[in-house]
Structures are given as C-alpha cells and as structure tokens.
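To illustrate the input format used throughout this study, we show a single complete record. The first block contains the structure-token representation of the backbone; no residue identities are included at this stage. The design step must infer an amino acid for every position from geometry alone.
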C-alpha cells in the first residue's frame, strides 16, 4: 500500500503555455534519484482545474512513461462534476497508473450524502485504488469523518489525504476506520507531526523543492525514529510556510524556476506570477537552504 513521501508534482509549462515535457521528464527523474516514494500526477498542485481533460490525461501518460515503473504514480482524477471525474478515471486507468487521488467537489458545496454518492460513483469506474482528498480551505465543503468511514467500506477506496492541518482528525479517522486504510497528510506544516502520530505519509508541495529531505523525514517517521524525523522537518519549517504566501502552485513554480529545475514559472490563468516581494521572500529562503546561489 502507498506510504512515505509522495510529491504533489507541479505541471511545468513553457512561456507560450504549452506543456514543458523536457522539464517534466527531468523533474520525474530528480524525484526518483532523490528518494521520493511516489508521484501524484496532475493533482490540484498540478493545475488540474485549468488543464483541459485531453491535456490532463496526456500529462499523466507522460509521467507514467518517464517514471517507467520505478515509483508508484497516483493520478489526480478529481472534479466538481462527477461525470467528468468518472471520465478521467476510466481514461487514466488505461495508462498503468497505480491509483487515483480525488478531491472533494469544489464550489458546488455538496451535502455529505452527495459526497458519498460522488466518490462511490468514481470508485465504481475502475478497479484501481482511490484516495480521497479533503481540503476545505480550497473546496469550502469539509468531508466529515463519518463520511470518510462510510466511504472506506468501498473496497476500492483505500485512503485519505487530509489537508485540514488538524491532527485531531487523524485520531478520529484511525478510530473510525480500521484495516489497511492509508492516512496521508496534505498539510506540509503539520505533516511531520501527522506522521509521528501514526500517519502513513505525506502528499507534499514542499517535496517539489526539497524532495530528499521530505523523503528522509518520512523514512525516519515510518521507522519510528521520531527525533530524526523532526530534525529533517525543522530545517524545512520556514519553507513550508513560504511556499504558501501566495496560492499554490504560484510560489513552488517560481522556486523551481529559480532553482533551474523548470524552464518557465508560467501558470494557467487565472493564476499569475507572484508579486515581487513574494519572489524575493522565496528566493531568500532558497538561498538560506543552499538551493540557489
């Protein structure tokens, strides 16, 4: 089952807005070399909301090709339209992905019963495992622990990415859902403590910038060496904060551009480049971490 440091991979774009496949391949190889345990392809950090479905599917196809079976690939299949999410799930199931990550529908504010019906329909669309994603700061709707427990009864729903930052939710979920259900943190600032309290891994934005350190933190946490895990995380505390001074993935893309890891910091509208003071703040952090000169 999925465990450890999974990067919520950005989708690099050229200055003209096309997918930058050369940078995408280089990022995948860098993560494999750095010890990243798995890749989330075209999740919300990968700008899934603004990539057309054909492009979304093609980026996942390319990531699977570049990874060549060396690490698991979880494809982002979320949408606020159940029909669209089902279509993405069926199409990407043909690409040799290892599973799916599906976000709570955004904007339309479904009832808890609607969330259950939505995810059950997605889970029925493929035999591959699905991880639920709860991020109420972006979706408005908060998926309750009772809803997670109800969905965990479906054989294809195997885990939860919890981006609430509330560690009490992990304890609630572990009490409500038993067996091999996987608990991932989606909040980098509390990800280490999440794992030290029994979580299975992180699906991380910070791993885009510091993949080796995030992988080591997770490795030590899973081994029960909590002091060592906290030492790795302590170095990244300010990075966790600075990557979110503007809406994700604005700052991660700027950081990767300044690090020479992608050719352009381009984003899909309505996202735009960071303000000058934000650029300077993340560049100073990268300099302090020895990631740029």
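Output of the design step:
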């Amino acid at each position: 089952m999925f465990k450890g440091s999974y990067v919520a991979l950005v989708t690099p774009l050229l200055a003209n807005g096309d997918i930058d496949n050369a940078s995408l391949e280089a990022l995948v190889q860098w993560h494999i070399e750095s010890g990243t345990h798995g890749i989330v392809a075209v999740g919300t950090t990968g700008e899934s909301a603004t990539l057309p479905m054909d492009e979304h599917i093609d980026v996942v196809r390319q990531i699977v090709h570049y990874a060549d079976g060396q690490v698991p690939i979880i494809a982002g299949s979320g949408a606020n339209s159940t029909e669209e999410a089902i279509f993405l799930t069926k199409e990407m199931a043909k690409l040799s992905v290892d599973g799916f990550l599906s976000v709570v529908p955004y904007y339309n504010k479904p009832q808890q019963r609607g969330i259950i019906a939505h995810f059950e329909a997605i889970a029925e669309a493929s035999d591959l495992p699905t991880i639920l994603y709860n991020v109420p700061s972006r979706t408005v709707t908060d998926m309750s622990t009772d809803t997670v427990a109800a969905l965990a009864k479906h054989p294809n729903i195997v885990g939860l990415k919890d981006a609430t930052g509330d560690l009490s939710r992990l304890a609630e979920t572990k009490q409500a859902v038993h067996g091999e259900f996987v608990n991932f943190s989606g909040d980098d600032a509390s990800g280490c403590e999440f794992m030290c309290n029994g979580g299975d891994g992180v699906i991380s934005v910070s791993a885009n910038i510091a993949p080796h350190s995030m992988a080591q933190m997770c490795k030590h946490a899973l081994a029960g060496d909590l002091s060592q895990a906290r030492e790795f995380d302590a170095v990244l505390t300010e990075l966790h904060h600075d990557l979110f001074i503007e809406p994700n993935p604005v700052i991660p893309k700027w950081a990767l551009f300044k690090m020479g890891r992608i050719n352009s910091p381009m984003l899909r509208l309505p996202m735009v480049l960071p303000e000058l003071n934000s650029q300077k703040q993340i560049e100073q952090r990268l300099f302090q971490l020895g990631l740029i000169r």
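Structural context for interpreting the output: The longest helix spans residues 226-242. Strands lie at 4-8, 38-41, 73-76, 99-103, 130-134, 157-162, 182-185, 201-204.
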